[in-house]
Design goal:
DNA-binding; 3-stranded antiparallel sheet; 3 strands; elongated; homodimer; Arc Repressor Mutant, subunit A
DNA sequence: CGGCGCATGTAACTTGTTACATGATTCC
DNA sequence: GGAATCATGTAACAAGTTACATGCGCCG
């Protein structure tokens, strides 16, 4: 039974399947290219690299000629490639999505409209930042077209991000307007008492 | 320093702020009304209820007249209400979103198009189910209008779901088409050989 | 009276974050 | 030589899931 629940291992295998990388580089790539749908911490990556090496799914080598930083790089092994392929085939587990901002909004009322406005604006800002990150990646991708054999698949993933962001942006706009409305006329909190 | 990281406590406080509920009922509500943006397991809820009671933020009482199942119900205390309000005010933490389906798609290639098709179709199906759940809730909400004072806020949250769901649906449709295309013409994997 | 669904709870485990320790290199 | 950044790693903790144990009431 080779398939484990832990997803970190598969992100690592997936990235190493394209190029040789160090732990630090893996983290950097996740934080840029994958950031809009995935995240990992160093505390997950380094121990996992160790484990994968022990299991023989990846192999470490030291940059031989490196005049600068001698970082420990990893390659995927044939066994690792096989496990990656097997993981790709098994069904996706239930998505666990948690939007704290929605939770707060859900439990808020007219009295907290000002605060919610802040939260939504923050949400908007963050997703704009993320959007810029991903547009950068998209440009990169268009330049060195087909470096990876999964060029089209990556574009599909980017399309997801684009669509979802558009709905975020449109929702933020609408919601900010509604909240400003409530803030301006707090007494009109339902159908117009008074 | 009253504010803790643990979000389960705030979901519980938020729900109890509207009505008296048992642990089981809390779980059921999260699984229906909040399911599209939140989830909790019994293993989180029951111990948390205990802790909140110890801290005096909620109080337990047994249904007195209950001829049927005597479930332990909880009420929020004034102290609990205060902590809830305080939590509402503090900024939202970075959203941690993990779409396993995108990860798989990202690491896949032309050879695994058939499998990815399965995954995306599954994703589509799940979100259709979720949509039905929330449409049910929306109807309910429209019937007993303004039972809660946060009627408008709940509608904003639902609007989020609706928008995001629409982008999911549209993305699934497009992506399924693309993948079927690749599946049908695997040799045409980039700009059209042959 | 046996099984099923409701209901509460706990323990073991896995997963994930945070804070810290360490050292090398680069830039001022 | 001191600060910043690159880079690797670990230990302690927090969060979350799963599987299990238990008991009650209802239905056939």
């Amino acid at each position: 039974m080779p398939i484990k629940k832990n997803k970190t291992r598969y992100v690592i295998l997936g990235l190493l399947n394209e190029e040789h990388l160090s732990g630090y580089e893996i983290k950097r790539i996740i934080d840029t290219r994958l950031s809009f749908f995935w995240s990992e911490s160093f505390g997950q990556i380094y121990p996992q690299l160790k484990e994968l090496e022990t299991e023989g799914l990846i192999a470490a080598f030291h940059q031989p000629d490196s005049n600068s930083k001698a970082s420990k790089k990893y390659t995927i092994t044939d066994q690792g490639k096989e496990e990656l392929q097997q993981w790709l085939m098994i069904p996706v587990e239930k998505e666990i999505i948690r939007y704290e901002v929605l939770l707060k909004l859900y439990f808020s009322n007219a009295a907290s409209s000002d605060i919610m406005l802040e939260h939504i604006k923050e949400f908007e800002l963050n997703h704009n930042k993320q959007r810029k990150l991903f547009e950068k990646f998209e440009e990169q991708l268009k330049q060195d077209i087909d470096v990876h054999g999964n060029h089209r698949q990556v574009l599909m993933v980017l399309a997801f991000g684009q669509k979802v962001w558009e709905s975020y942006a449109s929702w933020c706009k609408e919601t900010i307007k509604s909240l400003e409305d409530i803030s301006a006329n707090p007494e009109n909190s339902d159908k117009g008492a008074d």
